[in-house]
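Module 6 notes. Inverse folding takes a fixed backbone as the condition and produces residue identities as the prediction. Think of it as a translation problem where the source language is geometry and the target language is the twenty amino acids. Below is one complete input and output pair. Work through it position by position during the lab.
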């Protein structure tokens, strides 16, 4: 005997497919939706429908947008000579929150990961090279996550860009603000020592 009626079971199954949502969390979400007023439930369903219909990738930078070309690519206030390469669209939000970066972006939609069967042809590397050829880029900032896949992807891209004579940089790595040296791992300390700057 099933503990859940079929429509509720279907909803739990769909929620459980989401990243970071286990079976128990999926059940809580399903019961939450079940308890919503009809108007609230329909508003949620409509929001999901609209995001699937109206949101797409920007044809220039591959950020998510509901416009023909995203606001960052069309902004006259952005420095067209800087392109920051990120793994995912959500990384743009993290960088934008700093209010320090005023250039353009390019979203790879993943990283090179042979263990997962992801090669350079599976992410937006070719599109990045085409874009570099179309704009007057002076610097490419590689802002991948500091893990094995991120490092491999950054090295691969930097080797492709180097012959073009464009400066390629990467985000500094090291001890976080408020961190203590005794708790830092060796890799972080090595990165911090190599990335030291004059004060």
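Target side of the pair, the amino acids:
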């Amino acid at each position: 005997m099933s503990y859940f009626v079929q429509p509720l079971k279907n909803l739990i199954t769909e929620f459980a497919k989401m990243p970071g949502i286990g079976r128990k969390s999926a059940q809580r979400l399903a019961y939450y939706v079940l308890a919503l007023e009809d108007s609230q439930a329909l508003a949620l369903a409509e929001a999901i429908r609209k995001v699937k219909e109206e949101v797409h990738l920007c044809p220039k930078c591959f950020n998510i947008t509901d416009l023909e070309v995203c606001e960052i690519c069309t902004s006259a206030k952005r420095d067209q000579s800087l392109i920051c390469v990120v793994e995912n669209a959500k990384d743009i939000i993290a960088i934008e929150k700093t209010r320090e970066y005023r250039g353009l972006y390019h979203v790879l939609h993943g990283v090179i990961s042979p263990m997962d069967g992801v090669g350079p042809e599976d992410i937006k590397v070719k599109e990045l090279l085409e874009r570099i050829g179309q704009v007057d880029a002076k610097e490419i900032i590689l802002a991948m996550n500091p893990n094995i896949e991120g490092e491999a992807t950054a090295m691969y891209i930097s080797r492709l860009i180097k012959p073009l004579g464009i400066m390629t940089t990467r985000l500094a790595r090291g001890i976080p603000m408020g961190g203590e040296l005794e708790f830092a791992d060796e890799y972080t300390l090595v990165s911090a020592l190599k990335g030291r700057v004059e004060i």
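Reference fact for the lab report: The chain has two domains: 6-54, 78-172.
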